[in-house]
Amino acid sequence: MLKLLALTAFAKEISMWRRHMLTVLVLGALSMRLLVQAVAAQTDTGATDTTLFDDLTAANRILYDQGVVDGFGHVSVRHPKDPTHFFMARSMAPALVTPADILAFDLQGEPIDAKGRAVYLERFIHSAIYKVRPDVQAIVHSHAPAVIPFGVTTVMLKPLYHMSSFLGPGVPVFDIHQSAGDTDMLIRNQQLGDALAAALGDKTVVLMRGHGAVAVGDSLVEGVFRAVYTEVNARLQAEALKLGSVTYLTPEEAILSMRTNKGIQARAWELWKRRVVAATP
């Protein structure tokens, strides 16, 4: 009888030990799975950021190389996984930007963590447009000299060849004086950014009187493409007007050309990027 009781007690202990070990193994496996998922997610995010930061760095240098920006101007790209944030360099000349200079911003134009570094005064151009245009994934602000005359005269910037067909829907002009009276012409707060975004509306480009221009796109490639060919069109249009009456693209021609360009604009990006990467010491 005593032996039977002892065997029964021992069997219970074995059963309890097995259940305990099974629980430990299950919890251990679950923890390991969660750890692997977390590491994979971190690795994926890091890889995404690295690629995106490299492209944003290239975009800055391309815009300088193509004569769209000089020591001033900036380009941003929306966060691919969080539409309430975007990436842009700290305040510096575009041609000197490196991946280490890129910061994250929220839709109020505030840096997430600037680490004491200066940020662009006109970051509100970007935050305001991203806030009201969910289709926009990239924004370029420039002071290209060829574009300035079209923002201070009655001559409208219009597409005169297929590469600038995205100008077909119209190019509005934002006059900061109408929104804020006499200023230093800079979009230095969210209210002025909102006014500029309203002027842009659903268009691809908006001119800024006595200041410059803003081009938007549904990708970084498209944003840069449009900024470059806005400047090219401005130069060509100014030259054509010297010769006489200009024939511009019809609305339908512009639509058809935009569709074609969207499928091939990466060709220009690849060329421009290779050029600036090769020139990087």
Describe this structure in words.
The protein starts with a helix and ends with a helix. The protein is α+β, with helices and mostly antiparallel strands and 281 residues long. It is built from seven helices and seven strands, in the order αβββαβαβααββαα. Strands 3-2-1-4-7-6-5 form a seven-stranded mixed beta sheet, with helices on both faces. The chain has helices at 2-65, 124-132, 149-152, 176-180, 190-200, 220-243, 251-279, and strands at residues 74-78, 85-89, 102-106, 138-142, 173-174, 205-208, 212-217. It has a single domain (50-279), classed as Class II aldolase/adducin N-terminal domain (L-fuculose-1-phosphate Aldolase, 3-Layer(aba) Sandwich).
